[in-house]
Known about the structure:
48% of the residues lie in helices and 14% in strands. With 408 residues, it is of the alpha+beta class. The protein folds into 3 domains: 7-110, Orthogonal Bundle (Butyryl-Coa Dehydrogenase, subunit A, domain 1); 116-224, Beta Barrel (Butyryl-CoA Dehydrogenase, subunit A, domain 2); 247-382, Butyryl-CoA Dehydrogenase, subunit A, domain 3 (Up-down Bundle), CATH 1.20.140.10. It has a 4-stranded mixed sheet. A 4-stranded antiparallel sheet has the order 4-5-9-8, with no helix packed on it. It has a two-stranded antiparallel sheet with strand order 1-2. A hairpin with a 4-residue loop joins strand 4 and strand 5 (143-150). Helix 3 (60-75) runs parallel beside helix 7 (247-264) and helix 10 (306-331) runs antiparallel to helix 13. The longest helix is centred in the C-terminal third of the chain and has 30 residues, at 272-301. Residues 85, 117-121, 125-128, 151-153, 196, 200, 202, 363, 366-370, 372-373, 376, 388-389 line the site of flavin-adenine dinucleotide (FAD).
Amino acid sequence: MDFSLGKEVEDFRLVVQDFLKPWIVETDGVEGFAGKAVEPDLQRGMGDHGWLSLESEMSMDWNMKMFVFGDEASRRGFHLSSVATTMMVGFTLSQVANEEQKARWLPGINAGQIRIALGYSEPQGGSDVAGARVRSSFDGEAWAINGQKQWTTSAQHADYIWLLTRSQPESRRHGGLTVFMVPTSTPGITVTPIYTMAGERTNAVFFDNVRVPDENRVGEVDQGWKVLMAALTYEHGGGNVPGRSLTGWISRILDHGANFARARGDEVADDPWVTEKLGEIAIDAELAKLFVYRTSWAGAHIEKADVLGAMAKLHARESLVRASDKMLQMAGLAGVANAGCGDLGPDQGVASALQFEYIDAPTGTVVGGSVEIQKSIIAERGLGLPKTRNQGPRKPEPAQATLERQAG
Ligand SMILES: Cc1cc2nc3c(=O)[nH]c(=O)nc-3n(C[C@H](O)[C@H](O)[C@H](O)COP(=O)(O)OP(=O)(O)OC[C@H]3O[C@@H](n4cnc5c(N)ncnc54)[C@H](O)[C@@H]3O)c2cc1C
């Protein structure tokens, strides 16, 4: 079995390293992404290189190149949410949109000129996607949309929100949902920022009688769940979406941990506890990579790999939390000190990075389907175990039966 990626893909890695350079900033000796505000430029640059081509999906060569792109980008601290969400919607549109819609939107996505945010989650819950309450109703001329979405990442610079709505108010769960591509320039939309504890911006988006033409509806009226099923496969890790790779983040923590240990010399680097923890993280990083290879191979040769994708995502996200926890313990006081506390030593750059990674890692256990939801997918679809969701609340036992049991 040959696990090497081959010369063409490895050469591509060098091209990506060059491409990313203009967007890298260095702080205290640590490389990081210049920031969300420049993500639209980067997305256009990817489009110019032909890396956002929706036609290439499912080819093993493209999958591996996009893995390498994500690996290199995340290793340098790039959070590329807009690239990832736009591509997820792009792949979905190429499956479910009508020909006129494909002609209208796909060329702009391929060119990196259209950015799309995901409007699934609402204030009352994100795991229960089918419980959407944002209301859409057709008045004969256009659809009117009212309600609130929550955690709509990248909405501040998106051109469209891929919006899940409830078109049948009396319907429950999977029935009565309809999906739209809503231009963010439409009157009645308000985007307000929400920041994660690591300082990443996401948004709440309010829809106040937002008028959307029927030509922006994707899929049949009230049949939005079918559209969502296609889209959620990408959300849950099946398919190699550019910008989504978490393997680079694990490697980044490993790089920072090893650099910190080296800078501290014998005091830290020779400690067997440190060696053991670095070894464990290196194994997790390698496994994460193999999970992605397997998902990519299955996606290219067999089917949309939703169960394998969930496994890859679950392992990588839990590894990130474990790795950042171990490395913060290793950094000790340096990992909890703040910049501005005086002279904190030559390794303060990596120690601050380890602190950031510790605060940032838990976000990954929630975003795009929580780890519990990934476990349910593996259990139900992969292992054929009974459904863990959608069973409704447990019914209280009848009082009479309880009394009889107590009595005898
Ligand atoms: C930084 C960030 C960015 C995000 N970006 C987007 C975005 O762009 N677009 C978007 O639509 N959403 C986005 N989300 C929302 C994200 O998808 C939801 O937060 C996630 O799906 C969980 O939903 P919730 O936060 O409402 O928690 P809940 O769904 O209320 O869940 C709470 C807890 O209960 C657990 N739980 C819920 N249901 C079950 C179940 N059936 N079985 C077992 N455990 C369960 C969950 O795992 C979780 O631990 C983002 C979230 C974050 C933090």
